[in-house]
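New to this. Help decode both lines:
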Amino acid sequence: MGRYDFRPLRVHQTATLLLNTERLSRTPPWYNVVASITPAQTLVRTQPLPHQQRKAKSRTKKPSKLFQPQTIHYEEDALRKEFFKDHPWELARPRLVIEDDGKDSQKTDWSRIEQPEKALSGESVVQRQLWLQHNVPGITSAQAYDQARKEFYDLRLQEDVERRVAKEEAMSTGAYFGKSALDIGMELEDKEYERWKEWAAKEVVLAEQRRAAMYTGGVESGDMAVDSDPAEYEAALEEVSDQIPAQGQSALGGAMIRP
């Protein structure tokens, strides 16, 4: 077909051929109108740009990514990746993502990092750094990042001081806040440590029993009770005492011990 499609211009010619061959029983209502007013090329729908030709492979296979949309990149993406790589715990802070009218971005002025209608977050550092790069001449990306981080740290420190002072004021009037997350975590760790100590003590006792059984000829399995009966132990020892060589005498032949 080429670059242009001329089939709309040949509608009248095609209809004439169909009438002459009697493949059309009646003349279409638009036949005379199209004959007097020929469609212009500018009114014809343009053809979409074809995809780039790929090298033919030995096996015929339909391209899986033929109609896959292109990846969209924004300038803020690299800044966000750098900030949250250095501050991963900022992602753990709860955030409010609901907007009232969808025009919150029009109400912010990033000439300063603190916004009256937006809580301080990692996005504040990203937008502040982007504003510095676009509006401060001669500043590099690293310098803008350092300045935005310094302002961010100052505001975070101010929030922590305000929170600590508010808690102390409330506690002075009788308020009780319960255990903190650090206290709860320490208690859980202490419980786990005590459980491990009990398990380790049992394992040490079983190891000592196995070691003693190797020299006394007792049960080799580690199921022997710690508080075994002394009478039974003495009886078993007297039963095999005749076959045990005396002190300083070497065992010859390995006599079989019979019950």
